[in-house]
């Protein structure tokens, strides 16, 4: 709790320093904006309701990219981890696809899927997929052989093993990757918008930048950051609810 | 070979393939025969690393022997041994399931309805003294409690053969004697055939009808079999003080100690 107060104080200090430095023109306001104008712009967006449709678009893109990427990553991860032939065959392609900087696919997706939300979703999916995929793969490979042998001795069929051993084990690994994954879905959406779109917060930033309206750019960044924090919080909440079985460090309760 | 034997390992050899070019293949078990009669409690003792777990994995069907034959109630074993329950040496509970779900899971695999499986799992948890802990996850249980859950998880399936791999070796002495007595109580209720692996001779004598002593590795094989004619029911702590126990212990230990020394020297060698 005390930490929260310090954290808030630090935030205020940063805004204070920003304010002082730009008011005294030590930092040029043309390039660095002015915090009060940034806040005013943000306020105006929400007060006029102009931001909601853009935020909604970005949200839909992020959630779709996140959901599709996670489900694909989970399925392909399970499949490859449980099928040695398939994983041996596809191994070099997966490595190649993963090491490629996928942002360069954005123009191609724009051509394939148009300037609407689907090109952004596609970009987000390529980013999310690999994170989840590698974690699921790892999760399945790291299942304790003893737990596995035990389940088999208790009469588990391969479907039972998938349901009661591989999937739960992979889930815990997936969750540790979801924080990164949700961030990546968001990056995919915003970068996609920034590279060509007619709506979304990335589009607002792009427009403002075109007319050197630095305060609006910062306002966009502010909104995006807050938004990312909310998404991350939702993942943490789900993680806490679903992974109760995982030991937390020093789990004691004061009397 | 008596045909009514619950479990018969005949002339079993196990050679593990070399992992790389510069290591040799390792023969852990050589030409071992072990027969367990129906309702018999057999302990297998031997120095650490001699191949006890390997032998048990063969009996469970988790491992195929390089040579030899396994029969279960007269039928040759193919694949997993469906008549056997296995209590592993290491933690084998599913960490993502509560104690209750862990105990119930075997019945659910078998197709029992969920409510009924949970009902019976609750009974079994009560039987191993954990009625109040069903909602806990394995990481919230002590070592002894985890072993109890594992015991309930195996026994709820009512296997005809029980394979136990040093189940209590990680427990402190008091908990261990408690668990040994509980095991004997549970066992005397329906006399399953038991193969109990241990490196502790006192534990072996106090629990069993028969003790089989294995040689040190490599190429482990039985070097002695001792019927234990101590009266039942037994209390594992008290029986250790009787003259007959001391006598048996002296006799078996005399045979074992050379092997323990060999096993020790073997384990000191740089491979
Ligand atoms: N999968 C394996 N591959 C190679 N060597 C193994 C394997 N499993 C066990 N061994 C070796 O076989 C010997 C017997 O192992 P184990 O049966 O676990 O001994 P114990 O249970 O008696 O302590 C050991 O020397 C061990 O290193
Ligand atoms: Mg062992």
Radius of gyration of chain B: 19 Å
Which consecutive residue ranges of chain B, at least 5 long each, have pLDDT under 50? none
Integer count of domains of chain A: 2
Say which CATH homologous superfamily of the largest domain in chain B is assigned. Answer: P-loop containing nucleotide triphosphate hydrolases
% residues in beta strands of chain B: 15-25%
Examine the coordinates and then state which fold CATH places here, giving the name of the CATH topology of the largest domain in chain B.
Answer: Rossmann fold
Q: Which architecture name of the largest domain in chain B does CATH use?
A: 3-Layer(aba) Sandwich
Question: Mind explaining what this structure looks like?
Answer:
The complex is a heterodimer of chains A (255) and B (271). Chain A has 255 residues and is mostly helical. Chain A folds into two domains: 1-32; 41-242, MetI-like fold (Orthogonal Bundle). Chain A is built from eleven helices and no strands. Chain A has helices at residues 2-23, 29-32, 35-48, 50-82, 84-99, 106-113, 117-141, 145-153, 158-195, 201-210, 214-242. Chain A starts with a helix and ends in a 13-residue tail after the last helix. The model of chain A has no long low-confidence stretch (mean pLDDT 86). In chain B, strands 6-7-8-3-9-10 form a six-stranded mixed beta sheet, with helices on both faces. In chain B, strands 2-1-4-5 form a four-stranded antiparallel beta sheet, with helices on one face. The longest helix of chain B has 26 residues, at 243-268. Chain B has two domains: 7-83 and 159-268, Rossmann fold, CATH 3.40.50.300; 93-158, no CATH class. Chain B has 271 residues and is an alpha/beta fold. The A-B interface holds A 144, 146-147, 149-157, 160, 164-165, 168-169, 171-172, 244-247 and B 60, 62, 80, 82, 84-86, 88, 90-98, 105-106, 109-110, 137-140, 153-154, 157. Bound molecules: adenosine-5'-diphosphate (ADP) and magnesium ion. The site of adenosine-5'-diphosphate has 12 residues of chain B, from β2 and α1.
């Amino acid at each position: 709790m005390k930490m929260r107060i310090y954290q808030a104080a630090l935030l205020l200090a940063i805004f204070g320093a920003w304010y002082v430095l730009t008011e005294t023109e030590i930092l040029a306001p043309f390039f660095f904006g002015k915090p009060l104008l940034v806040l005013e712009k943000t306020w105006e967006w929400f007060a006029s309701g102009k931001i909601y449709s853009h935020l909604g678009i970005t949200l839909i893109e992020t959630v779709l990219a996140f959901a599709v990427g996670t489900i694909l990553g989970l399925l392909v991860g399970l499949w490859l981890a449980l099928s040695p032939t398939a994983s041996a065959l596809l191994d070099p392609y997966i490595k190649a696809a993963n090491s490629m900087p996928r942002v360069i696919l954005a123009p191609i997706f724009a051509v394939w899927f148009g300037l609407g939300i689907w090109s952004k979703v596609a970009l987000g999916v390529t980013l999310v997929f690999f994170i989840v995929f590698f974690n699921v793969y790892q999760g399945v490979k790291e299942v304790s052989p003893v737990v596995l042998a035990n389940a088999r001795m208790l009469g588990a069929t391969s479907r039972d093993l998938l349901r009661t051993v591989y999937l739960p084990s992979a889930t815990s690994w997936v969750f540790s990757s979801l924080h990164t994954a949700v961030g990546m879905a968001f990056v995919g959406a915003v970068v996609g918008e920034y590279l060509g779109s007619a709506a979304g917060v990335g589009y607002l930033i792009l427009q403002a930048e075109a007319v050197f309206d630095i305060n609006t750019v910062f306002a966009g960044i502010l909104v995006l950051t807050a938004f990312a924090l909310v998404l991350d919080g939702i993942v943490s909440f789900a993680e806490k609810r679903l992974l109760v079985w995982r030991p937390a460090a020093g789990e004691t309760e004061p009397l | 070979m008596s045909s009514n034997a619950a479990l018969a390992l005949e002339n079993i050899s196990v050679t593990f393939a070399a992992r790389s070019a510069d290591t040799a293949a390792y023969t852990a078990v050589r030409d071992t025969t072990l027969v367990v009669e129906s309702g018999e409690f057999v302990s297998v003792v031997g120095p650490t690393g001699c191949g006890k777990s390997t032998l048990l994995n063969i009996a469970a069907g988790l491992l195929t022997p390089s040579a030899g034959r396994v029969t279960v109630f007269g039928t040759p074993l193919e694949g997993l041994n469906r008549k056997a329950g296995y209590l592993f040496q290491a933690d084998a509970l599913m960490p993502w399931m509560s104690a209750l779900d862990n105990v119930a899971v075997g019945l659910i695999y078998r197709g029992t309805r969920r409510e009924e499986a949970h009902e019976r799992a609750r009974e079994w948890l009560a039987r191993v003294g954990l009625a109040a802990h069903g909602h806990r996850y394995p990481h919230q249980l002590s070592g002894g409690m985890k072993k109890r859950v594992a015991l309930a998880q195996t026994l709820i399936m009512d296997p005809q053969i029980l394979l136990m791999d040093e189940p209590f070796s990680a427990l402190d002495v008091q908990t261990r004697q408690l668990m040994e007595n509980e095991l004997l109580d549970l066992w005397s209720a329906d006399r399953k055939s038991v193969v109990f692996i241990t490196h502790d001779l006192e534990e072996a004598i106090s629990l069993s009808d028969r003790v089989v002593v294995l040689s040190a590795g490599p190429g482990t094989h039985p070097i002695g079999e001792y019927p234990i004619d101590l009266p039942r029911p037994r209390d594992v702590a008290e029986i250790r003080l009787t003259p007959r126990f001391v006598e048996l212990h002296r006799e078996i230990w005399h045979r074992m100690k050379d092997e323990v020394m060999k096993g020790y020297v073997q384990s000191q060698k740089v491979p």
